[in-house]
Every structure is written in structure tokens, then in C-alpha cells.
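FAQ: What does a multi-protein file look like?

Like this. Sequence, then C-alpha cells, then the next protein.
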Amino acid sequence: SSVLSDILDIARGTRVPPLGVPSAELTPYRRAPIREHEGGYYIRLNVRDVPGAFAAIATRMGAAGISLESVIQRPDLRVSEPGVTGTESRTVVLLTHSTMEQTVRDALQAIKGDGFIVGDPQMIRIEQL
């Protein structure tokens, strides 16, 4: 139907700007600072299988004011750190409620500094459509 509408506009000689407004009247694009993005986040961590590891992660998230919507730990997903013996870890997935990206990044940096995770944390923004 939109193709037919375009064909009819051409046949009538109607000139409609591509965005509905002449390009000279458009305001310049302003890129949003990504660290100020607010939304939910998917976070995947490889957590060392030692007592107190998850408590430390939850404490860091709580101290940063980040509310967790869901925590998933699959017992069959084990990861071993290459080149280091006795460092078995488990994959843990955290889903957060809406929060600021910089807050999440700061909390993940603190969690990494605690030494309970193997490798870098993985973070993906969750967009609500």
C-alpha cells in the first residue's frame, strides 16, 4: 500500500520530503551519551565456585542501587579458567530492572576487582519496545 501511495504521488506530481519536512528545517542530530542510557541490562558472569562469591556480587549490586529482576545459574554450565588448575566457575546470568548504564559499569568493575569472576563480565542493554 505504501508503494502504491508513492506511485500515486509521482503520478500527481506531488513532492513530499522524505521525512515529511524539508531537510533544511530538520534540527541537527544530537547523539545521546550512552553512559546515561537508562534501562534494563543482561549481565553474564563466569563466577568462581567458592563460598561467598555470589554474596559479594549481590552486595556490590545492592550498594550501587541496582535491583535484580532475575538471577539464573545453570548447574550444568561449568567453565574452567585456561592454564589455572582448581578454578572451576559457573555461568551466572543477571537481569536488572531499569538503571543507568554508568552505574552498571561501575558495579561490574567493582565486582571484577573482588576477584570472584573469571574473565570480563558481558553486558547487553535490554531495549523495551
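And here is the next protein:
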Amino acid sequence: MTKHGKITLSGARDIPFSALMLSQANVRRVKAGVSINSLASDIERRGLLQSLTVRAHRDEEGNETGRYEVPAGGRRFRALQQLVKQRRMAKTEPVPCIVRDDEVVSAEEDSLAENVHREPLHPLDQFRAMQKLVEQGSDIETVAATFMVTPAVVKQRLKLADVSPKLHDIYAEDGMTLDQLMAFSVASDHARQEQVWDMLQTSYNQQPWFIRARLTEDKVRASDKRVRFVTLDAYIAAGGHVLRDLFESDDGGWLEDVALLDRLQTEKLETEVAAIAAEGWKWVEAAVDFPYGHTFSLRPLDGEESASSEEDEARLEALREEADRLEDQWAGEDEIPDEVAARIQAIDEEIAPLVSRPLIYDDGEVAIAGVFVSIDVDGSLHIERGFVRPEDEPVEVAEDADAEADEGASGEDRIGEIAANDNVVSAEERPDEEDPDDLLRPLSDSLVTDLTAHRTLALRDAVASSPMVAFAAILHALVLETFYTCATSGSCLGIAMRANRLIGYGTGLNDTVSAKSIHARHESWAARLPDDSGDLWAALATFDADEQAAIFAHCVSFGIDAVWEPATRYNEGRVSARAVANRIEHSHILARAAKLDMVAAGWAATVANYLGRVTKPQILAAVEEACGADVAGRLGGMKKPEMASAAEELLQGKGWLAKPLRTPEPVTTGDLEPANDDEAGDVDDQDGDAVDVVAAE
């Protein structure tokens, strides 16, 4: 066994800086880490904490020159050199150095060993040191200067104090990553942190985003429209606390006190409602959201747009000129600077209220109408004024004389009042006394009915011979029903569309791509239609063929009902399960014809719209279908809330659809081949009847 002697450590001695020079044997060539400027400032403040390692410099003949090379400690040497150049240190200032012997190890080996065997400070140790300095009274900026980092880094390290000591120990033993520890710092409840960590041990997903999601699932994001409506400042002023994530973008954080947020939201809505009610409306209804189609059965008031002031007109013109100038300036550019894009958006936001002038309503109509007040996606107040409920519609009472005359009038009299037939006159137009031999006797009700039946039959034949008139008649009837809730005129066409307004179905329908598209299209057409339904026929006649076809399709779309419900509840039992099945089957035919694409329509499986409302096996089946059995198997040990959240993340962008949203492929002829000739004959007969029915329709 080789016996090693005891080592002898070289002591440091002071050497004037002017006698030092950087060695070419220093292995550090790439600049990294803390800058020389920062290191120089630190040395100036606290002195040199670590001695330089030097060797005697020799000339070409091997003789010592009296100067020393620095193979280990090159960055410290450069920092001292900068202090000398800036006259913040004398060039003769003694520098503590350890002088190494050339015969023991090479200068290159010394330089390499110093850099290779250096262990960076563990982040947890750095955090504890920073926390100690803060506890001793140092502010964030001072601590940042001490460690030569930014104040933001100090805040991040101090934020780790919100993490359970148990998790600190796990991190110190490399049981979790720094990113995971940072994710746990988003919440301060140590028990909940430990609960989530224990859950992760049997979970497929241990990503930081999943940890944050579990710790904040009972909080409200600061980007939520309710928070934007109340304002974050008001919430904080009322004593509310906001969780912040200093390590990731958090869109303002999460609000912990949901009850406080709800109270502030209710109070502010009540204040807004009181101000609107003072305008004289019969009722004002307020909610965070209203269900899709909440105004469909109500009559909207026709208001007159208020006049713009000269100042508003001048401002509007100036804004439009500025917008046009910016668009011309940046047209064709691949990228627009953020400040320019922000200015264009600000211009659009300022133009909007100048263009959309508030409507002025008749005081009498205001007294029977109401207002819906809700919160828009951007947190602004969404006010829908001027809707009359059916029970509030005024009842027109005829004068006594007219009422009595109507009661005593014959069928001929009633027809005469509305007909444009010169051979039939109203009772008021007849002489008081006429010779019965000279005039025809009044026609009986039954005869008038028979005659108008003949006329109806002839009219059907005439319209059947004129497809364009038939189309116009259906179009007129549909537009009346779609746009004129309480029309003062009607149609002689016996056709009606039973529209399912989709009120009360699910949540979030108002925010879908389809709902917004339908609403915009409806508003666009409504703006082109006359206020008086009696003028509708003439107005539709001015539309060209494409426009008529477009509004026809819009009206027809409101009659589509592809909603499935149990037959025992559907329409109070008046429709059978078979009828519902037939309706759904026909919806598939329409979907194929219209090339319906639910993915393009914006549907994606989320916890709210699907995953949180089905069983765990159904969640796993969805993930398996979209991502494969291996991925689905990793979710098997999770509890349902965690499984649903993980599945939502996995299904994003996969184009997966729940079965009720899928359009099946059409059944081919080969799929309907009968088992024997007798059955084939039956099928042929049934098909023939079906074709005849369709043709007759």
C-alpha cells in the first residue's frame, strides 16, 4: 500500500496588481455568467472574496521576470483591471494571491480544476439566503445587488417561501424539479400543496401547468369578465387577495375570495340597473349572462337614432382620417409595430360609440317595455333596451259602433270590407233603401265560403304554375314569422315554422362561433327590412335573386331542430320516440348536404361542456380514441376532476367529437340488401311508397 504524505497548503500573499498579467493557460475562453461590470461593482463594495491563483512569469530563457501570470481567476482579474482603468482602484493595490509551483501541476490543469469542481449554489440555498437578508431588514433592491440578479429574480426566490417545508425537503433531495416547485408557489395553503403532490404520485400528468390548475381550480382568473366588470382595484380595495404566479404568465393572477367578487358584482349591477330603471322602463332584468335566444319571443321597439353633435362629427371624421392614414402607411407590411396596432385598436374603440348612436324611444312604449343588462366578454356593460313581453302588449279595443256593426255583418259584408273586388261592396256603401227586384240579395256566409274556396283552389293552381311567385309567398311568410313577432299584417299562406329557440339548453351557447354568426346575420337583415310589416312584400320584391335566397336560407335555419330529448319529456309527451328519431335522422341528411363541420364551428371537448358531465370510463374512451390506448392508460389512476382536466388538455387540437355531434355516413344500397326475395318485395313496395310521398310533397 502506497503511503501518502500529508498535504501542505500554500498560503496567500499580497502582490501589487501592476505585477499581475492574465495567463494564456486560462481555459475559460467563452464569456458566461455574471458580467465583468457587475463583478467589478461587487468587488468594489465587499472586496475580493477569493484569492487569485498565480504562477511566476518566466522569459524565453526560463528566468523569472518578477511578474505573475493568472491561470485561475481570469474574470476576477478582468474585474480588477476594469476598476483600475476607471480609477476606482490603484494599480499598485495589493491583491491576495496563491502562488503555485510549476513543477507540481500545469497551469492549464489548475485553471480547469477551478472551473470544473465549482458547484453552483442550489436555488433553495439561494432562496434561504435571500430570505435571511430580507428578515434582517434589507430591501428587494439591496438583495438583488448583493446577489447580482434582478429584483424580479429575488421576488421569485422569496415566493418559494409559500411552499410547504415538506416539499422543500423533497426538492432538496431532487425529488421534484425546480419548475414543479415554482408551480406549487402559486398557492399558500400548505395542506393543499401536499395533497396535490400526493395525488401526483399516482398521476400520469406531473407537468407544472397541471399543478397550477389543481391549486387554482376553485379560484377565479383575473381575466374573467366578472373581474373586468368589477375591476381588480375595487376587489383589492375591498380586502380581496390575489394569487400571483411569478414564474409564468398568469393574466393577472387568480382571485381567492369568490364570495367577495360575487358581492361586488351584484352591488355594481344593482347600481347600473337603478340608473337604467330611472329612464322609465317597466322592467329591468340583470344577470352575468342570459341564455341563448332570450329575446326571440319579445317584440323589439323601433327607436330613432339620436342626432350627433358637431363635436362628435368632427371627432369621428378625424379618427377615420387617422385610421385611413395608418392603414395606407402599413399596407403590405408583414408586421405592424405593437404601438401602431394598439393605436389602430384604440381608434376603432373610440369610433364605435360615435357611430352607434343611442336610440330614442317613445315614452308610451318605454312604459310597457324592458331592458336586459348583462356583462360582456370584455367586462363592459351589455345593455339591450326596448323589448316588450307578450303579456304587456296593448290591447286595441274597437269603438262601440264599429263593434256592433262587425257583430251584425254578414259574410259578404266582411269580405267586402277587405276585398279589392268591384262586384262586392261593403254594407256601408249600399243605399239605405233599395228595390229588391233591382239589386242582388246579400250573399250568405256559406256561399261566400264556397266561393272563396273556389278562388283558393284557382289561386293554388296559378301559384303552382309560377315557381317564383310561390317562392316569394313562402319567403314573405317566413320573414314575417322570423322578424315580426307582433306583425300587424299577415299572409294567406297556410304555412308556419315551428322554431326551437334553444332557450335553456346548456351554457355558453351565446359565446359560440355559430351563435355570433347567426346574430350578426340577423341584425344585418333586420336593418334592411321595413318597420311596418305591411310594407314587407314590396320590400322583398326589391331584393335580387341572390338576396332573396340568402334571407330565405336564414329564415329556414331557425326552423331546424336537431335537439334530442327523451320522448317522455319531449313536447309533454305529444311526440313519440319514433318521431324524434326521424327528426334526428333528417338532421344528418341536412348536415351532409350543408357540409356541417363541428370542429370548424369551434367545438372542442372541455370539462364544462362534456368531460365534467360524463363518467370516468367515457373520459378514458374519448382519450383512447383520440390519443391511443397507452395515453389513456396513464389517466386510469386519477380522480375524476383531475382526469377530466388532463383529458381536456390532451384532446385539444385533436378534432375529437362526442358521438351526438358526429354526422354519420349515408347508408348505401348494399347495406340494405334483404335476407330473401319475399323481404325484397316488401322493401321495394315500401321504397316505392316513400318515393311517391316525397314526390307528392
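Q: Is there any per-entry metadata?
A: Some entries carry free-text notes. For the entry above: The chain is about 45% helix and 10% strand.
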